[in-house]
Amino acid sequence: MAKDQKAEDAMVKARLMLMLEQPFFGTLALQLEMVEVTDASFVDTMAVDGRHLFYHPPFCATLSEKEMRGVIAHEVMHCAF
Questions:
Q1: How far apart are CA 4 and CA 23, in angstroms?
Q2: Which letter does DSSP use for residue 55 in this model?
Q3: Per-residue pLDDT tens for 25-71?
Q4: What 3-state class would DSSP assign to 46?
Q5: pLDDT grade for 3, boundaries at 50, 70 and 90
Q6: Cα(45)–Cα(60) distance, integer angstroms
Q7: SS in 3 state form for 8-38?
Q8: What are all long-range contacts of 16-23, with beta carbons under 8 Å and residues at least 24 apart?
Q9: How far apart are CA 40 and CA 13, in angstroms?
Q10: What is residue 57's predicted lDDT score, i.e. its pLDDT?
């Protein structure tokens, strides 16, 4: 299945904005490999496993840019703690 380019672009932009606005979170976020998940039974929002940042494009489409940064920072904190 083809990647959802709009969701991927929003994720990339959010991680880069975190680098500028919150370097701690941005640096950690950039260490995670982004993985698009189309199977909502696996991930229907976002999740991390310490190496990957899984994201479900339909969930990403519901978020504003600011909310996207917040969710990514939230996921990064799962790894930090």
A1: 27
A2: E
A3: 999 999 999 999 999 999 999 999 999 999 999 999 999 999 999 99
A4: strand
A5: confident
A6: 7
A7: HHHHHHHHHHHHHHCHHHHHHHHCCEEEECC
A8: 17/65, 17/69, 18/69, 18/72, 18/73, 21/69, 22/69, 22/73
A9: 23
A10: 96
Q: Which long-range contacts (CB under 8 A, 24 or more apart) does 40-49 make?
A: 45/71, 46/71, 46/72, 46/75, 47/75, 48/75, 48/76, 48/78, 48/79
Q: Are 70 and 18 in contact (CB under 8 A)?
A: no
| Amino acid identity for residue 15 in this structure | R
Which class for 66: exposed (0-12), middle (13-18), buried (19 or more C-beta within 10 A)?
exposed
Q: Which residue has the tokens 């994201």?
A: 55
Cα–Cα dist 79/40, whole Å: 22
